[in-house]
Amino acid sequence: MYQYLFFDDQKLFRRNNLTRNIVSPQLIADSVFCDGISSTDLRTPFIFKTDDGKYRMIYQGRLPDGKDSAFLAISDDGIRFTPEDVTDRITIEDRVADHEIFKIPCGEIAEIIEDPYNDPAERYKMLYCDNSDGENLVVHGYVYTSADLIHWNKIEGVEWNDGAEPITGVFYNQQRQCHTIMVRPDWGTRKVGYVDTKDWRTFTPYEISLQCDSLDDPLVEIYGMPAMAYGNYYIGFPLIYGNFEDALAAKFSSGTMECELAYSLDGHHWQRSLRDRFITGLDEQSEQVFGYQNKMVWPSCFCRQENGDVLIFCAITKHQHGYAFANPGAGKICAYRVKKDRFIALTAQGEGLLATRENIWNSGEVHINLSCAKATLAVYESQNGDLFGSGHAIEGYSHEDCIPFSGDSTDWVPQFKNGKKLDDLRGKTLILEVKMTDGSIYSISGEFRPVMNLQGARYRVKGIAPTKEI
After folding, report:
1. Is this prediction's pTM over 0.70?
2. SS3 (DSSP) at 396
3. Same structural domain for residues 293 and 369?
């Protein structure tokens, strides 16, 4: 299945009277978690659905004495978590709580992922940043593995990136058949690049992907970029560090953390989206749920729900950068809900019109995610030998033939008055045109393959379908 998410207009023929907007996710009040023992002021947690149908959350917590440990919590619904007692499964010296699973002597958990592509005994992978090497001023990146999320073993002799700090994004890169790690290049260098690995023992050389540019607010820095695979896209959440005090020094002792959106088609080459904040604690949602604004929000993991919604789990704190680390106590965990595909909206006030470029139609119907007063779909076909993808009307597939839709749906399947189906147009190159009044469209998806003009002409004349994304 292919999805149009409207980060840009690359694969559109028309976009009339439609404004592009960020769609702010909903802060879920019931998800707020604090174990009463530790404070989650650093980037955390990491959440997994385990074989018993439960959800487990590992998070790094800072104790009142300034020491850190990793803890485990459990949930039936993946939203409301409580500490899980693991005293009968693991022994820890000087244990501080029944849900403690290991102590963190000097460093931070950068990422924990589930890896179904390698050894089941190493089902879970943890990237850990050890900053104890003060003599050489180097952060060492080590890899730990686990079969059960409780017992962890270090892979000896392996470093996933020498010098990186622990704000990462790890996802399976389908195009390259490997895991891609989005990470900063060195301690204090706030820009984002990537390394790839197939076996968690060997890693490709670091390559730069993203940094701040002239469209950003003055002096802000990209602190890192958590990221996820999402259909035929990769979606990144650049952490924007700003609002710090004016000083002739590296930015540390003050400042806020918010996040924006970025996107990629191959997991390596990234584009920034609108420079509006996607998740921020400096808003009314935080005021309503917590009674105060949160100066730092750290997105850490992403859980896809059965209905297609995405939960983004974050660590939050009301304190500014630097102060929060030295004064633990205010950090909590919470989740934001992104309704299925609703990252970016194209919004019409009055009547708007959107038309895709050509799509090789494989099978089935089109699925449209939108909310509006009225919408209809028209379908056009490109003709053989046409190098420019010109749309020609197909009888029975006009706006007048489409049964109008009104309301809010993540999965509107257009119906035509004469009973015609898009499935009847298999093998043709089709242009989809949505006419919409007073509302927003978020995605178009189906069993089709978008093509540019020469790709479409080559397919119609020679029967050669493209094998790679352009």
Report:
1. yes
2. coil
3. no
